Amino acid sequence: MWRCRHRRYYLTLLAVSLAWVVFIAAIVRFAHIREARLRTGRGAARLNVAIRTRQGVLPIRIAEVETLKASPLEKWSHEQRKLLNMTFRPWLSTRSDCSRLSTGFGRHLPTVALVSLPSSGNTWMRFLIEGGSGVFTGSLYSDLTIVKAGMYGELVPHDSGTTIAQKTHGFTTLEGVTASPSEQRRRFAHVQELGCRAILLVRDPAAAIVSHRHLDAAGHLGFAPQSHFEGEGWDKFVDQKAEFWYSLYAAWIDQCPPEQLLVVQYEKLKSQLNTELERVLRFLGVQPDPERMKCIERYPRGNMQRRTRANSTGPQSPLSDRHRQRIKRSVLALHRLVSEHQLGDGIADYL
Predict the structure, then answer these.
(1) Rounded CA gap, 256 and 263, in Å?
(2) Is the pLDDT confidence value at 3 over 90?
(3) pLDDT tens for residues 103-123?
(4) Is the pLDDT of residue 42 over 50?
(5) Cα–Cα distance measured from residue 226 to residue 282, given in angstroms and rounded to the nearest whole number
(6) From 95's CA, which of 165, 312, 335, 351 has a CA 20 to 30 Å away?
(7) What per-residue confidence (pLDDT) applies to 185?
(8) Lowest mean pLDDT among 12-26, 73-87, 102-116, 185-199
(9) How far are the Cα atoms of 17, 24, 32, 34, 277 from residue 29, in angstroms, in the given order?
(10) Residue 91's closest CA among 318, 251, 236, 302?
């Protein structure tokens, strides 16, 4: 009797174990099938949808974005090339004279890099350049959020000659983050891909690092929870980004002739908008248009700016004294470099 009961117990246990194995195998199989369908069949169909923007539908599909970015314009299909006829009106909703002004693609334009640490105002700068020049800016990336906001230049190859400036964050994002310092400068600073003519957009690193944390956790417009600004993870984040803030700009300054570089401070762009933007436009070979400059002065905010929240640089700043000392070392180093290469008055106001 005793042996019989134990036999039944072990058989039951074996049956339950087998059932769990079958159940887990079914889940894994379902996951594999679902992944396959995302690449072909019904899953691919979900990706094969048009890109809807604020002002219409683009003549390409979401599934085509990476292919477009990697292909020269000569290899685009007739349907895909219709994208180059698209325009966007940045002030359409204002119901003013500015609403008729549009942005479009250029032709045979030289490559000019727009270099910054993430969350330093790169997207806003692109909005200003596009509004001031009437020509789309481009990028080494493919951010559909930006495309849907009306920056169609995000979709074309950076060297297509159709965009007036091309965004890069260099090795401070994606695979470049984990590369060795020498490899970061050689492969991931993007000096080789974009050439040495560049706008270096610099923001106070204390504000940029906090904003970068929000971007990583909650996208272009959201805010990270308080827990993201605490503990060892936050300490490492500050140390890494403070180093990147210096080393990215240093990589360009060390490798490029000073006359090919323009240093623009985000804070000066905010406080002296027209003066600084005119300086940027002239660097890009554009004569500022008074009508466009007036519209920018009236409607300076783009669609992709995070709204202000009491946080980052006031009394409740998540930056400790140790963080600020680490950031100060990077500011001093970059200030010396900018001054030595005569790229302006330096950035001592960040100290």
Answers:
(1) 13
(2) no
(3) 999 999 999 999 999 999 999
(4) no
(5) 42
(6) 165
(7) 87
(8) 12-26
(9) 18, 9, 5, 9, 56
(10) 302
The two beta strands, 113-115 and 198-202, are parallel
CA 128, CA 273: separation in Å to the nearest integer? 9
Interhelix angle 290-298/273-283, nearest 10 degrees: 140
Burial class (CB in 10 A: 0-12, 13-18, 19+), 104: middle
For residue 2, what pLDDT is reported?
Answer: 46
And the tokens for 53? 């923007």
- The residue written with tokens 């069949």 in the block is 41
**Averaged confidence pLDDT in the chain:** 87
Cα distance between residue 305 and residue 144, in whole Å: 16
Give the mean model confidence (pLDDT) for residues 240-268: 97
Identify the sign of the CA torsion 270, 272, 274, 278: negative
Token pair in block for residue 100: 């008729």
Amino acid 310: pLDDT: 47
The DSSP-derived string for 50-87 is: EEEETTEEEEEEGGGHHHHHHS-GGGS-HHHHGGGG--
- CA-closest candidate to residue 150, choices 294, 259, 52: 52
Does the predicted TM-score (pTM) go above 0.85?
no
> What are the C-alpha distances in Å from 178 to residues 119, 138, 245, 254?
19, 25, 15, 22
- How far apart CA 47 and CA 51 sit, in angstroms, is 10
